[in-house]
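Tutorial handout. Part one gives the primary structure; part two gives the three-dimensional structure as tokens.
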Amino acid sequence: MTSLTIFAPAGVELRAPALKLAKQRLGALGFDVAVDPSVRARHQRFAGDDATRLETIHRVARAAPSVAIACRGGYGITRLLDAIDWALLARSVERGTRWVGYSDLTALQLGLLAHTKALSWHGPLACDDFGRTDEAGGIDEVTRDCFAEAMSGELEAVGFRTEAGFDGLQAKGVLWGGNLTVLMSLLGTPHWPKVKGGILFVEDVNEHPYRIERMLLQLHQAGVLAQQKAALVGAVTDWRKSPLDRGYTLKHAVAHLRGVSATPILTGLPFGHVPTKVTLPVGRRVELLVDGRDAFVAWEHTHHAGG
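Part two.
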């Protein structure tokens, strides 16, 4: 069986029933599931103090399970970036570990890419996705199946519907990105991946479209967008409309970005703080193809042996 460890590197995990359900569902997919002690750690809003969470990441890296999936995101990894043993994490990847998560895990994944070029996977969280009750919608089938195929090495492409206007677009480059707010917090630091000719993907939660626009404009003004072959925008959710918007939406924000940047910006990527999310290889060279309104992100097939 493929070994899988659920761990807590960031926010405190208070959902014991969700954790139990996640373990059951992941086990049903054929994983040999272990729950790291960090899921029971408590310090303010964090899963343990900084030293505890740093040791959590290093402990999981030393154990090198086939899959290391965070139970939740939240906030906390940014505090640890200067102290993480990136070479240790890279060695775990060489030994077969696939680090999986989204939201705050963006910091870990992009730091790993920046320091070592090692690959990770932007994908579901154990409790947030696999621990969702049936009454709340349960585990999304696309999310579940895409994750399982990615972890087995069988997944080689994901597809989505985008807006008209990009038919025939083809681009090859390193896939990178994640939560936009977390990503922007790395700009100008040693933990920022200097990706040129890449394909950037972003999503966010609790951020008004004008904030999304401002962050994307910063990427444009910093020269980052111009260095990419394309940018893919996922879900932007759970923000509140304002009376001041007067019709302003995310669509208008994206249109403005398209007006100032020559880099193609595609919307519709099924990823973010939403039930349906694909699993994406961070740091891997991919090919983006658009046929009509159908967009595909594809990469070379690989097979991972279980461990």
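Part three, for discussion. The longest strand covers residues 170-179. Residues 174 and 285 are 4 Å apart (CA to CA).
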